[in-house]
Write a structure and sequence with these properties.
The protein is α/β, with parallel strands linked by helices and 359 residues long. The protein is built from 13 helices and 15 strands. Helix 11 packs across helix 12.
Length: 359
């Protein structure tokens, strides 16, 4: 962590909102190979020593366990940290929304001293991964199986192997899967491996989003180039598009969004139905007599779609285009009725499913 050389690193830490020492400053010294200890009473002597010994680095940190302040307040804090003679500023806040990360990332390229900028919690993930893109001095990670020292901290393996952290730079293009919840998604495992295999300078992130429109307005840079959509945002995503592919428009939901590079417009597509319908057709073909036909094996088959959300809309649309007789149910019957009216299907209630056996 000592960017000037070997020797002494001093950590001055300001905490907000975690313990009885709210608003207090703590001073720590790390000697290489030694233990961290409180040395607040010796601060003046240490400053004098540092003037004579240029192998010493001061890292002044602020931890806010309540929220992420405004960009103006964070900027003022960095200025105060610089004014007391810090070589590196560490600003750690708490992300209450994924848009909070933007205030941390905006500071990194413009500070007069190196900054370690982190927003804690699951919603702060992108501040940890994208710090390398925006010029952060470093990021933190825990050893595999070790305890996280702050909420949302990644393991070294996750940072290096999943997100390819060492390959991230200023020109890296940002992608991700938008949903809530989202940590279960395997999409980053697929896409980041694919990016690395073809030498594409991109990273694909878990994006825990509350409001799609707020997220897109906040991260409007051309470097944020594309997203996958999952529960519950497939319909909200469509409403935020500048243009929508005709199939996605007919379905009424998107599964992915691309930012057009020459004008920044957001274009929505839906390819959910392609994979799902192809799998159904393959399964039906496997149970048929093997004769070849241009007619889909779904043709004239009864297809029951459970759920009329974004994925259900895509399946119902795909089944109907293949000639299936589509029946739709949902716990909110009005949603099922709307979808059935749009694609020309039938509706049954959830309670009728156990007795529904027309074939």
């Amino acid at each position: 962590m000592d960017y000037k050389g070997r020797g002494l690193s001093v950590f001055v830490d300001h905490c907000v909102g975690k313990s009885s020492k709210v608003g207090g400053w703590r001073l720590w010294v790390d000697r290489i190979g030694g233990n961290r200890k409180n040395v607040a009473d010796d601060f003046i002597d240490l400053v004098d020593e540092m003037e004579e010994n240029r192998k010493t680095t001061i890292i002044v940190s602020s931890h806010n366990y309540e929220n992420t302040p405004s960009i103006e307040k964070i900027g003022d804090l960095v200025a105060r940290i610089q004014a007391i003679g810090a070589d590196i500023a560490k600003i750690t806040t708490t992300a209450l929304d994924i848009t909070d990360n933007a205030r941390i990332l905006q500071l990194l390229p413009y500070s007069l001293i190196p900054i370690i900028g982190i927003a804690m919690g699951e919603k702060g993930l992108i501040s940890r991964v994208l710090s390398a893109k925006f010029g952060g001095f470093l990021t933190f990670a825990t050893l595999e199986g070790g305890p996280a020292t702050t909420p949302g901290q990644l393991t070294v393996k996750c940072l290096l192997d999943l997100y390819n952290f060492r390959q991230i730079g200023a020109d890296t293009k940002v992608h991700g899967v938008i949903g809530n919840p989202i940590s279960h998604s395997k999409s980053p495992h697929l896409y980041n491996a694919a990016f690395q295999s073809v030498g594409f300078n991109g990273v694909y992130l878990h994006l825990l989003v509350e409001s799609v429109s707020d997220f897109l307005k906040t991260y409007s840079s051309l470097d944020f180039v594309g997203y996958s959509y999952t529960i519950p945002h497939k319909i909200a995503g469509l409403k935020c598009c500048d243009e929508v592919d005709p199939i996605a428009k007919a379905i009424g939901a998107i599964s992915c969004m691309v930012r057009r590079p020459f004008d920044g417009k957001l274009i929505g597509y839906n390819i959910d139905y392609m994979g799902a319908i192809a799998a159904l057709e393959q399964g039906l073909q496997g149970s048929s007599d093997g004769s070849s036909s241009m007619i889909s094996p779904l043709s004239n088959k009864l297809m029951v779609v459970v759920g009329a959300g974004g994925a259900g809309k895509a399946l119902a649309y795909g089944g109907k285009t293949k000639g299936a007789r589509v029946v739709i149910t949902d716990s909110i019957i009005e949603k099922a009725v709307d979808l059935a009216n749009n694609i020309g299907g039938r509706v049954i209630r959830m309670g009728e499913l156990d007795e529904f056996a027309p074939e």
